[in-house]
């Protein structure tokens, strides 16, 4: 493997992003390659490690347990073979002798033969759809907000509610704003949250307004059961949320007339969008992105640049289980490429 002379640290692989996909890839690669993981945040794990289990008297297969198991497997990283650099952002990249010279905001630089982009995803900012009242009206929540608090005192207010509503596809399935894709997680987490809330507060009436319910991935029969027994499905999309006496009111047109329905709380099932880090890294590394801003995967995690790979939600919306499996899959491809290169140079 040709490398240019430098006093900088040299790695076989640099992983950009320490969410569950990047960590899963690092777990596969670490016994065989010298690597470094760079994360712009000051902690690892991404969104997946911020969520709690949604189990009631049974497992709801939300995927959080996969992230929990990964955390157990990796431990405290004190003996992990790869180096971790936290709280650093990539600012530039240059190429020479089939290697990449990466520079970061704090002035640190390194050299890597391959790069894996695992910069992840972020929840859609519900304030970008002000017609739904998030941040303006009380008792209007996002699904992620509720999910983060399911196992804490954060949702104790739901004990006093009698009637709540979910609004699906907030921030996705919007072709005008170039977010026409399905986020693949909103319907599933909304149904699982509904099951959890109904278990904790059996008196709750839960209505779900949707355009096209997507029961994707594994355990579809469980989701179908929840949708049948726990929620009242309403195939209609409110176009505005108003507020009266502190209670949110859904406004929609029905049979050419305006209808208003009052609830105690409204939960917006927000979609997932590329993280700011994904867009910035794509520009610096000069890799192609799709119309929605995700990095294009040309198969087996390859991108438009040689020896630059992508995994997890950096290439598109995925749930926790799929993000982890994708990180492992792409790691195997990277190992295959490195082994072929070693055979050529040996």
Describe the protein's topology:
Elements: E1 10-16, H1 20-29, E2 35-39, H2 64-74, E3 83-86, E4 90-96, E5 99-104, E6 109-117, E7 121-123, E8 140-142, H3 143-148, E9 163-170, H4 186-200, E10 205-209, H5 220-229, E11 232-234, E12 240-244, E13 247-254, E14 257-262, E15 265-270, E16 272-274, H6 276-285, E17 308-310, H7 320-345
Parallel strand pairs: 1-2, 1-6, 2-3, 6-17, 8-15, 9-10, 9-15, 10-11
Antiparallel strand pairs: 4-5, 5-6, 7-16, 12-13, 13-14
Helix pairs in contact: 1-7
Explained architecture:
This protein is α/β, with parallel strands linked by helices and 346 residues long. It has two domains: 10-120 and 275-345, FAD/NAD(P)-binding domain; 123-272, FAD/NAD(P)-binding domain, CATH 3.50.50.60. Helix content is 25%, strand content 26%. The chain has seven helices and 17 strands. The chain has helices at 20-29, 64-74, 143-148, 186-200, 220-229, 276-285, 320-345; strands spanning 10-16, 35-39, 83-86, 90-96, 99-104, 109-117, 121-123, 140-142, 163-170, 205-209, 232-234, 240-244, 247-254, 257-262, 265-270, 272-274, 308-310. Strands 1, 2, 3, 4, 5, 6 and 17 form a seven-stranded mixed beta sheet that branches. A five-stranded parallel beta sheet has the order 8-15-9-10-11. It has a three-stranded antiparallel beta sheet with strand order 12-13-14, with no helix packed on it. A hairpin with a 2-residue loop joins strand 12 and strand 13 (247-254). Helix 1 packs parallel to helix 7 (320-345). The radius of gyration is 22 Å and the shape is elongated. The N and C termini lie close together (9 Å). The relative contact order is 0.18.
